[in-house]
Amino acid sequence: MLIQNRMAFKEWGGVCAALGQGIQSVIVRKGGIHEGRQGFQVAHREFWLFPTRFHQGSELLQPAYCDLLKAPIAIEPASGKIMLALYAVVEKVLELKAASTLHQLDSLQVLNQETILNRFEYKTPGLFVLLIRAYQLPQPFQLENEIQYDGCRTWVELTQEFPTSNLTPVLTDEQFQQQLLTLEAIVE
């Protein structure tokens, strides 16, 4: 793991809450408007999770997980503030090309089938699934929101590096290994 890092990955606050609670260990990504012609790329293997609220709503989640939007990480912070509480290390990257496998992701993540299918079908059919090992801080870092963080983009370079020394894994090694096995069973 890096000693410090300034790269952040923008993700819905509800999904960040699920990652922080160990409910899910995957990120399902298509890419934002500003991703360019190549679309989404896994440009960094470690990053801070940057919770967003744009395009987020309970109707996009599986019904059992709508309460995630009430979690502190999912709630809009004080004006002009960003809270960094979670760090992610990418352990595996898969690209799904068959819509028939999408329903198998239900047990690994909190988005509903319609949301996943919409992402899959956007522009060119396909989705990236990133298996991540999530780590949490005992006390979140609070930083000022900057204009360069705005927009529909996945990757954000923060104005400073933040240390990773106080992180603890959300899942035990055994729990994470089970998530890996479940994901591998889907794509075999």
Overview of this structure, please?
- The protein has 188 residues and is α+β, with helices and mostly antiparallel strands.
- It has one domain (4-187).
- The chain contains three helices and seven strands.
- Strands 1, 2, 3, 4, 5, 6 and 7 form a seven-stranded mixed β-sheet that branches.
- The protein is globular and about 40 Å long.
- The two termini are 29 Å apart.
- 29% of the residues are buried.
- It holds the Pfam family DUF1802.
- InterPro entries: DUF1802.
- This is DUF1802 family protein.
Record the SSE blueprint.
Blueprint (H helix, E strand, L loop, with lengths): L3 E9 H8 L5 E4 L16 E7 L28 E16 L16 H9 L5 E18 L10 E9 L4 E2 L3 H15 L1
Parallel strand pairs: 1-3
Antiparallel strand pairs: 1-6, 2-5, 3-4, 4-5, 5-7
User: What's the pLDDT, averaged over the residues?
Assistant: 90
Secondary structure tally, helices:
3
Measured on Cα atoms, how large is the radius of gyration? 16 Å
Terminal Cα separation, in Å? 29 Å
Q: How is the biggest beta sheet arranged? A: 7 strands, mixed
Return the domain count. Answer: 1
How many beta-strand elements?
Answer: 7
Low-confidence stretches: none
The topology string of helices and strands comes to: EHEEEHEEEH
Shape estimate: globular
Percent helix, as a range, is 10-25%
Beta-strand content bin: 25-35%
Structural class from helices and strands? alpha+beta
